[in-house]
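Work Package 3 (structural annotation) set out to generate three-dimensional models for the target panel prioritized at the project kickoff. During this period the team completed the workflow that converts sequence records into discrete structure tokens, so that structures can be stored uniformly alongside our sequence database. As a representative example, we reproduce one entry of 117 residues exactly as it appears in the project archive.
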Amino acid sequence: QVQLVESGGGLVQAGGSLRLSCAASESLFNGNVMGWYRRAPGKQREMVGSIRKSGTTAYVDSVKGRFTISRDNAKNMIYLQMNSLKPEDAAVYYCAATGSSWSFNTWGQGTQVTVSS
């Protein structure tokens, strides 16, 4: 059973933009926190940012001012708008959720983002 499904990855040039989408089950979407993680080859997975039901967001320093997380409550979806992409942003991006807990414990299958220079 798949509860989180990402889409929107692709290949872009440095400086370009992409918007990732995540369709979530109702239970996870209405849980405490939703967010985005990423994992580059040879590196550990890191949290990119998160969003609460209130719309409050948080981001890792490296993407502040460039990435924006948003929610569409009518569609049970969250988004990651990525602008001014850099080669170091290239990674597999994962949608994640905490459900009723406060730890991220569920991830989607991932969507590949490739940034060319």
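The CA atoms of residues 26 and 76 lie 6 Å apart.
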